[in-house]
Specification:
The protein is mostly helical. The chain has three helices and no strands. The chain is rod-shaped and about 90 Å long. The relative contact order is 0.05.
């Protein structure tokens, strides 16, 4: 059965046209899937960069607070705490 289909595709003008269309559709589908994959990767990289920037900011603030004198830390905490 497969041999008969191959013979029809290779042997007739209509079969060659159907085969060419199928090949073109497969190429377009492959290009689309590669584009989707590339877009997902770029989005993942963008989210990772945002997370990395947030971690850097947290460390920067923690380092700055760690260098403050104890009295200054107490005063800042009083401003932020509930009364």
């Amino acid at each position: 059965m497969l041999a008969a289909a191959w013979t029809w595709i290779a042997g007739s003008r209509l079969g060659r046209a159907v085969g060419a269309l199928a090949l073109a559709a497969a190429a377009v589908g492959l290009a689309f899937l590669q584009g989707v994959s590339r877009g997902r990767l770029q989005e993942r990289v963008r989210r990772d960069q945002i997370a990395l920037d947030a971690v850097r900011e947290i460390r920067r603030v923690e380092d700055r607070v760690a260098r403050l004198p104890r009295d200054e830390k107490v005063e800042r905490l009083k401003r932020w705490s509930r009364r």
